[in-house]
Design goal:
25% helix; binds hypoxanthine; single chain
Length: 246
């Protein structure tokens, strides 16, 4: 039987509908994960929930212990992860609050430990990452969002930046020239670490703002939280449809 986990991002540090049955202080050889690992029932299925930035949203993207998070989920038997990530919209069609199911990543991060395969190896390991997200899980997310008539971009390239600052306008122009549609700070190394552990991993990205230089407005945390509120409601609708199919 599939064991599912949801990794919540900015705007999703808890899930109201989750009937929590267990809370575990998990540890890993790489240190502590972002918080207590919650087990609970959501939309008829038992699953795990871990808020990436901690329960009070205090861990910035570049300080998240991605290895510990992925490790404790794997130890719990998780084989499938839906990650929820707030992003800025680069593609002109994207509006605040809209969902995106990315199919590609370009990694621009610079200071993160990005692999489990670095010490005590019998042999060097290179994982295949041609398709960084799990195609079958992406398909489920897309077909459920279509059934619910959710306005969702079904293919997109996620630019993973280091943060925690937002980008300059020219950095966004460069990301666009590189073929990126959305930009966020938490997509990597999470996706690659999931692949190293052989976990089927897909992302629901929520557009929190138009990327730097793409609107006249200053990007503020207030703007991000306001836009995420409506986007996260749509994420929950999508989760209610997709979870029973997993
Ligand atoms: N850039 C990077 N990460 C983000 C953004 C952004 O504009 N919005 C939300 N996360």
């Amino acid at each position: 039987m599939t064991k599912l986990a949801i990794i919540g991002g900015t705007g999703l540090t808890s899930i109201d509908d989750l009937k929590i049955t267990k809370k575990a202080v998990a540890q890993s050889p790489f240190g502590a994960p972002s918080g207590i690992l919650q087990t609970g029932e959501l939309f008829g299925k038992e699953l795990y929930f871990l808020p990436r930035h901690g329960p009070s949203h205090t861990i910035p993207p570049h300080k998240v212990n991605y290895r510990a998070n992925l490790w404790v989920l794997k130890q719990a038997g998780v084989d499938t992860i839906i990650a929820v990530n707030a992003v800025g919209g680069i593609h002109a069609d994207l509006q605040a609050g809209q969902l995106v199911i990315p199919d590609q990543i370009i990694d621009y991060t610079t200071s993160r430990t990005n692999t489990f395969f670095e010490e005590g190896l019998k042999e060097v390991v290179h994982i295949d990452f041609t398709e960084p997200y799990c195609p079958s899980l992406r398909e489920k997310l897309i077909s459920c969002s279509n059934k619910l008539s959710i306005n969702c971009m079904e293919q997109a390239t996620y630019a993973a930046t280091e943060g925690p600052r937002l980008e300059t306008a020219q950095e966004i122009n460069r990301l666009e020239r590189d073929g990126c549609d959305i930009v966020g700070m938490t997509g990597m190394p999470e996706a690659a670490l999931a692949r190293e552990l052989d976990i089927c991993y897909a992302c629901i990205a929520v557009v929190a703002n138009q990327a730097a230089g793409r609107s006249q407005e200053e990007i503020t945390m207030e703007m991000i939280s306001k836009n995420l509120n409506s986007g996260i409601e749509t994420v929950k609708k999508l989760l209610s449809a997709v979870i029973p199919t997993i």
